[in-house]
Every structure is written in structure tokens, then in C-alpha cells.
């Protein structure tokens, strides 16, 4: 057998990753694996449950931190690009109209939260007046 025939045969035996990749099958496998792990953790000791919860919480926090940084970078870059385009003359931003719109939204938010502020103020006042009772009850 010639060396080129062996190479061709070997290339034919190795499937391409794009041909055999089935997204639905992979999603089902991942779902079943996660369900299996969660069911298994529920049957383990409290220490293992605590470790699993801590590790999964850390991983979730780490991923959210990275996503948050990416989102902040994207929003910041967009603001910088708009400002650069404005100063270069590519676009014209009507700052007076934008300011009026932001003020209207701020007023709506303030109006919707004013009722909640009064309820919170009553709770804070109650806590300040009864701080000794609260301290005694917490012991």
C-alpha cells in the first residue's frame, strides 16, 4: 500500500467535528448529567453538600463577574464611541432633549418609590426607638 493511500484512509476514518456535532443531543446529555449530579449530592453527607454548594456558588459568581465586566466594557465602549462620533461631527446629539427625557424618567422613578420610602422610614424610626429591645431579643 502506498503512503498516500494510508494517509487518505486515515483521514477518511476520522470524522469531522462539524459533521457529527448534534447540539440537541449534547444539550440533553448535559441536562441529564446535571440532574444526576444534583440527585447524587442530595444523598451525600452535609459536608459534601456544603462543599458542592460552595464550589457551585463560587463558579457562578466567577462567571457572573466575567459577564458583568464584559457588559460594562461593552456599554462603556458604546458611550465612548457615541461621544467620539459626536465630537467628530458624524452624529449630532440633542443634549437638551436627552436631558428632559432623563429628568422625566427620574421623576417617574421617584414618584413610584416615594410610597416605599415612607414605609421604610417608619421601620427605621421604629428600630431607632426600640434599639434596646431589639438587642435584647437578638441575644
State the gist of this model.
With 139 residues, this protein is mainly alpha-helical. Helix content is 87%, strand content 0%.
Key words describing this protein structure:
139 residues, mainly alpha, 6 helices, disordered N terminus
Question: What report would you give on this structure?
Answer:
The chain is an all-alpha fold. The protein is 87% helix and 0% strand. The chain is built from 6 helices and no strands. The protein has helices at residues 3-13, 17-20, 23-42, 46-88, 95-129, 131-138. The radius of gyration is 30 Å and the shape is flat. The termini are far apart. Mean pLDDT is 77; it is low at 1-10.
Sheet with the most strands, sense and barrel status: none
CA(first)-CA(last) distance: 87 Å
Question: Helices and strands: which structural class?
Answer: mainly alpha
Q: Total number of β-strand segments?
A: 0
Global geometry: flat
Give Rg in angstroms.
30 Å
Question: Helicity level, as a percent range?
Answer: over 70%
- The low-confidence parts are 1-10
What is the H-and-E element order? HHHHHH
Strand content: under 5%
| Count of helical stretches | 6
Residue-averaged pLDDT, rounded? 77
Main location: mitochondrion
Family: Belongs to the FUN14 family.
Subcellular location: Mitochondrion outer membrane
InterPro entries: FUN14
Amino acid at each position: 500500500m502506498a503512503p498516500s493511500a494510508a494517509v487518505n484512509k486515515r483521514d477518511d476514518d476520522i470524522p469531522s467535528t462539524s459533521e457529527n456535532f448534534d447540539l440537541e443531543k449534547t444539550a440533553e446529555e448535559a441536562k441529564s448529567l446535571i440532574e444526576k449530579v444534583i440527585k447524587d449530592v442530595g444523598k451525600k453527607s452535609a459536608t459534601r453538600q456544603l462543599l458542592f454548594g460552595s464550589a457551585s456558588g463560587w463558579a457562578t459568581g466567577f462567571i457572573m463577574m466575567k459577564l458583568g465586566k464584559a457588559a460594562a466594557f461593552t456599554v462603556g465602549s458604546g458611550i465612548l464611541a457615541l461621544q467620539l462620533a459626536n465630537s467628530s461631527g458624524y452624529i449630532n446629539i440633542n443634549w437638551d432633549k436627552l436631558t428632559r427625557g432623563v429628568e422625566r424618567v427620574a421623576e417617574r422613578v421617584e414618584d413610584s418609590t416615594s410610597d416605599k420610602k415612607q414605609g421604610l422610614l417608619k421601620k427605621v424610626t421604629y428600630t431607632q426607638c426600640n434599639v434596646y429591645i431589639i438587642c435584647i431579643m437578638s441575644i
